[in-house]
Amino acid sequence: MPTPTTHDTYTRLIALLDTAAVDYDLIDHEPEGATEAVCALRGHPASEAAKCIVLRVKVDRRTTRHVLAVVPGDRRVDLDAVKALYAARYAGFSDAETAERLARSVPGTVLPFSFDAELEVVADPAVVAQRRLYFNAARLDRSLVMSGADYAELAAPRIERIAGPAAG
């Protein structure tokens, strides 16, 4: 059951896509947030999924940035690459409360889009290269598929190599 926040985020996503006249399809499925499991429900390889993870990047003692890292579903976020990208002292996973507040959705439903000025989107080139890019649509029971090119144009992420080796 969508919470008010996830419902608002879902509605905002669909409005954004419809306003931009982007081609997309919605896929209803059993509630699932784990990448491998939801890929099986949707019937595609994990490499075509967008895995979205909120990171905390400490640039220096006083400056913390929040980054939405978007990598292929069969890969891991390379925290060292993110750290180097920002010339930071530290890069790691955000706490759940901060991640939910910034992503405006619960774990397993985080979009590869940001609706919060504090959350910068960085996508791996392999994500935007996908002919078909799948992700949960701010809900555990509904996913969305669109082209990586349309995603890149609409979300305007910073495109950097941030994906590590395949998740094992």
Automatic annotation (TrEMBL):
Ranges for domain YbaK/aminoacyl-tRNA synthetase-associated come to 29-153
Entry keywords, A to Z: Aminoacyl-tRNA synthetase, Ligase
Q: Which GO terms describe its molecular function?
A: aminoacyl-tRNA deacylase activity; aminoacyl-tRNA ligase activity
Which Gene3D superfamilies does the record cross-reference, listed alphabetically? Answer: YbaK/aminoacyl-tRNA synthetase-associated domain
**InterPro entries, from UniProt?**
YbaK/aa-tRNA-synt-asso_dom_sf, YbaK/aa-tRNA-synth-assoc-dom
Superkingdom to which the source organism belongs:
Bacteria
Q: What is this protein called?
A: YbaK/prolyl-tRNA synthetase associated domain-containing protein
- Which organism's genome codes for this protein? Streptomyces apricus
